[in-house]
Write a structure and sequence with these properties.
It catalyses: acetate + ATP = acetyl phosphate + ADP. By secondary structure, this protein is α/β, with parallel strands linked by helices. The chain has 2 domains: 136 residues, 2-Layer Sandwich (Nucleotidyltransferase, domain 5), CATH 3.30.420; 191 residues, Nucleotidyltransferase, domain 5 (2-Layer Sandwich), CATH 3.30.420. Helices cover 38% and strands 18% of the residues. The chain has 15 helices and 14 strands. The protein has an 8-stranded mixed sheet with strand order 5-4-3-2-1-6-8-7, sandwiched between helices. Strand 4 and strand 5 form a beta hairpin. Helix 2 packs antiparallel against helix 3, helix 10 packs across helix 11 and helix 11 packs across helix 13. The protein binds adenosine-5'-diphosphate.
Length: 395
């Protein structure tokens, strides 16, 4: 299939899109329709010359927003649509061609991702309505982690909760961990290297990957488990919920809201969820910002150390996501917390590898694990998986 793939990442009030040609070096048309359903809905993005554009979309719904996106594709027609779907449960272990039965199965999985899957399905419904003739492919955030062994994915809970209700660890950011670990293999001329990957953006997760298979990851049943994130707490004592309910009388909704939207970097700093702003504030002496950065970096390192148990050999660590790609400070602090890994950070290379640059930031000692910064490309990976499914070969 040589036609471009339209990659859609649909939220409840937004549609992120990218039109990705078969030639990986071809320019991408990409953008975002946001605040859909509101009076200030808008479409913004980059055209094929890389020029930014933005225009109002008065109160558009998803179908009309997609029509506006199509109008902006400069006459190019996609040959297939690849959808990011957050939760595939245990049913979906790889990219899957969408039909009515697949939509029904994704609906069933919505119990595990009540905020995300229904929104993703709105995008599927809208694109199926607009392009009934095009193949549509679902690419799941969870699928890459379906190779976790039971010792990594089971919680120590009564078996019936797993068997009857699917309560287990699933992991997320799968397309990103898959992309950067594959890329690390290629850049290092290794086949089946053992990598620890750290996706650090607003959402953050780590993974242990060997031979292209995810062996463990920091997120669990939901994307709340694991690292400190922009506004999410990551790991807390499981006794916290009952403590807050009993001592403060908080209802479940409030606990959920605080852990998902009022915690993490924002909660710790009392200032912002944004790492760039925190770094600036910390520099000026803001104690909350300094603490937030310290806790964040220590927890990333601790998670990487824990996940190293899944690998027989550590070939290297890969940093990605907005923070992983752009913050030499965070990378340095994380590496400094892992002296027993024998990592040698090249501080000049670390400082120079920012703003979308791919680069190796270790001192290239032959015995030391590599340190890579690899800008993630979730859209590119979704397009590739879509193309390969339709072309009949596995990625
Ligand atoms: P999302 O998970 O929403 O896709 P991103 O991957 O874009 O988010 O990551 C957003 C985070 O990256 C924010 O905390 C932002 O401050 C951080 N970031 C972006 N650029 C820099 C920078 N130059 N220095 C430090 N942090 C940065």
């Amino acid at each position: 299939m040589n036609d471009p793939v339209l990659v859609i990442n649909c939220g409840s009030s937004s549609i992120k899109y990218a039109l990705i040609a078969a030639d990986p070096d071809a320019p991408r048309l990409a953008g975002l329709a946001e605040r859909l359903g509101g009076s200030d809905a808008r479409l913004k993005g980059l055209d094929s010359r890389g020029e930014p554009f933005e225009r109002a979309l008065a109160g558009e719904d998803h179908v009309r927003a997609l029509e506006a996106i199509l109008d902006g594709l400069e006459g190019q027609r996609p040959g297939a649509v690849g959808h990011r779907i957050v939760h595939g449960g245990e049913r979906f272990t790889r990219a899957t061609l969408i039909d009515d039965a697949v939509v029904a199965a994704i609906e069933e999985t919505a119990a595990l991702a009540p905020l995300h899957n229904p929104a993703n399905l709105q995008g599927v419904a809208a694109t199926r309505q607009l392009f009934p003739e095009l193949p549509q492919v679902a690419v799941f955030d969870t699928a890459f982690h379906q190779t976790l062994p039971p010792r990594a994915y089971r919680y120590a809970l009564p078996e019936a909760l797993y068997r009857d209700h699917g309560i287990r660890r699933y992991g997320f950011h799968g397309t990103s961990h898959a992309y950067v670990s594959t890329r690390a293999d290629a850049l290092s001329s290794l086949e089946g290297g053992g990598w620890l990957t750290a996706h650090l953006g607003n959402g953050c997760s780590t993974a242990a990957v060997r031979g292209g298979r995810s062996l463990d990851t920091s997120m669990g049943l939901t994307p709340l488990e694991g690292l400190v994130m922009g506004t999410r707490s990551g790991d807390v004592d499981p006794g916290l919920h009952s403590h807050l309910a009993r001592r403060l009388g908080w209802p479940l909704e409030r606990i959920d809201e605080v852990l998902n939207r009022g915690s993490g970097l924002l909660g710790l700093s009392g200032l912002t969820h944004d790492m760039r702003e925190l770094e600036a504030a910390a520099e000026e002496g803001h104690a909350g910002a300094q603490l937030a950065i310290e806790v964040f970096c220590y927890r990333v390192a601790k998670s990487l150390a824990a996940l190293s148990c899944a690998l027989p050999r550590l070939d290297g660590i890969v940093f990605t996501g907005g923070i992983g790609e752009n913050s030499p400070l965070v990378r340095e602090k994380v590496v400094d917390h892992l002296p027993h890994f024998g990592l040698g950070l090249d501080r000049a290379a670390n400082a120079a590898t920012v703003r979308g640059r791919e680069g190796r930031i270790d001192g290239r000692h032959p015995a030391a694990p590599r340190l890579w910064v690899i800008p993630t490309d979730e859209e590119g990976r979704i397009a590739e998986e879509t193309r390969q499914l339709l072309g009949g070969t596995a990625p």
